[in-house]
Design a protein that fits this description.
The chain is an alpha+beta fold and 416 residues long. The protein contains 13 helices and 24 strands. The chain has helices at residues 10-20, 51-60, 71-75, 78-84, 98-101, 103-112, 126-136, 159-171, 239-259, 293-296, 304-312, 384-395, 411-414, and strands spanning 2-7, 27-32, 42-43, 63-68, 89-90, 120-123, 140-144, 153-156, 182-186, 191-200, 203-206, 211-212, 215-217, 221-224, 229-232, 265-275, 278-285, 325-333, 345-346, 355-357, 360-363, 366-369, 373-381, 403-404. Strands 12, 15, 18, 20, 23 and 24 form a six-stranded antiparallel sheet that branches. A five-stranded parallel sheet has the order 3-2-1-4-5, sandwiched between helices. The chain has a four-stranded antiparallel sheet with strand order 6-9-7-8, sandwiched between helices. A hairpin with a 2-residue loop joins strand 10 and strand 11. The longest helix has 21 residues, at 239-259. The termini are far apart. Its EC number is 6.3.4.13.
Length: 416
């Protein structure tokens, strides 16, 4: 079959890689893709927001399966449009994607269906939000309600930090419309876990777990980013822990969205805090995590396209996962997640089948950066320690004149 991946980042590159090794797939297209993805997909110059052209392309090329990578086109109703045109698509409807699009809506769903999460309150007025922070104290978590590319969250360790975050969101409008409202949440203690599942209605097919590193610098210091690296598996947690998270979080969320009249089809991502009282939801996403996709998909041994078609056709696929470990490290533009210079050359890029490009363009025979997160290099090995050693040995080849990366991805697992 012909497959279309919508999106342009590292997650979409990982999807193209997974489809390219699927025996059932004849051709992989990526719209718009990026200049580094050409080893796995034919990139077509159609923006992820151009619904008319995407539909026309899918029909012209007899695309039998479309997978929508990023959240923005999902919340713009791209999946609904494909459905109306009779095209098979894997991605939630606009209504179902609101589980990611509005943090306050996600919290309401969690309340209604008894899904464990931290206490919270929502505010659109700065003074009321500040008064709430003063009444609760710190540490406390401030989140822009809407989409902010992974950067709308402040884990404030002091009241002063929390008030500054509220000022940036509600008074300075740092995140525009996405910050018209804030959700203020209880600070949860524990270790984070990313758990994703293929979902169609009430059918839930869990993936192997991963852990993302959100802070920009080593030792989990610096500002939050979209993710600076990830690894899978996460040996700190047992299969029993993961089964509990599926049972208490993923399944009730899928069933709850059916009850809401917004049945979910796609990848449901739960960002969890594994507390002493069990798993609690930090956030839901309506698509593959980035960078989690780049370490989870290389462990998938089943044919991804067949798996998704089986699910869409009402079956319950049973994916086979490699026992091997994968560690992935992001190289980002210097200055990210703040301002950074674009069009800076990237030299000595390591070679690997698990090299996933994100913010790059080809110019004058080489790559230049076009985004904050530039690439992610993953390595797969029998153990996390070996995978980490291999990936960092290869990262030494990269010229970091214009880039930086964390040197401690996977440190929590390897401290055990």
């Amino acid at each position: 079959m012909n497959v279309l991946v919508v999106g342009a980042g590292g997650r979409e590159h990982a999807l193209a890689y997974a489809f390219a090794k699927s025996a059932s797939v004849t051709r992989v297209y990526a719209a718009p893709g990026n200049d580094g993805m050409e080893n796995y997909a034919e990139c077509v110059n159609i923006a992820e927001t151009d619904q008319e052209s995407l539909v026309a392309f899918a029909k012209e090329k007899k695309v039998e399966l479309t997978v929508i990578g990023p959240e923005a086109p999902l919340l713009d109703g791209l999946s609904d449009r494909f459905e109306r045109e009779g095209l098979r698509v894997f991605g939630p409807s606009e209504k179902a994607a609101m589980i990611e699009g509005s943090k306050s809506y996600a919290k309401e769903v969690m309340e209604r269906y008894n899904i464990p999460t931290g206490a919270y309150a929502s505010f659109s007025k700065y003074e009321e939000a500040v008064a709430y922070v003063r009444s609760q104290g710190a540490p406390i978590v401030i989140k822009a309600d809407g989409l902010a590319a992974g950067k709308g969250v402040t884990v404030a360790m002091t009241e002063a930090e929390a008030v500054q975050a509220l000022e940036e969101v509600l008074k300075d409008h740092k995140f525009g419309e996405a910050g018209a409202e804030v959700v203020i949440e209880e600070f949860l203690e524990g270790e984070e876990l990313s758990l994703m599942a293929f979902v169609h209605g009430e059918t839930v097919v869990p993936m192997v777990a991963a852990q993302d590193h959100k802070r920009a610098y080593d030792n989990d210091e610096g500002p939050n980013t979209g993710g600076m690296g990830a690894y899978s598996p996460v040996p700190q947690f047992t299969q029993k822990d993961i089964d509990e998270a599926v049972e208490k979080v993923i399944q009730p969320a899928a069933s709850g969205l059916v009850q809401e009249g917004a049945p979910f089809t796609g990848v449901l991502y739960a960002g969890l805090m594994m507390t002493s009282g069990g798993p609690k939801v930090i956030e839901f996403n309506a698509r593959f995590g980035d960078p989690e996709a780049q370490v989870v998909l290389p462990r998938l041994e089943s044919d991804l396209a067949e798996l998704l078609v089986t699910l869409l056709d009402g079956g319950t696929p049973e994916p086979v996962w490699s026992e091997d470990a994968v560690v992935g490290v992001v190289a980002a533009s210097k200055g990210y997640p703040g301002s950074y210079e674009k069009n800076r050359p990237i030299h000595h890029v390591p070679e690997s089948p698990l090299l996933f490009f994100a913010g790059v363009e080809k110019k004058n025979g080489g790559y230049v950066n076009s985004g904050g997160r530039v690439l992610l290099l993953s390595e797969k090995a029998a153990t996390l320690g070996e995978a980490k050693a291999q990936v960092y040995e290869k990262m030494k080849e990269l010229d970091t004149g214009n880039l930086f990366y964390r040197t401690d991805i996977g440190f929590r697992a390897l401290q055990q």
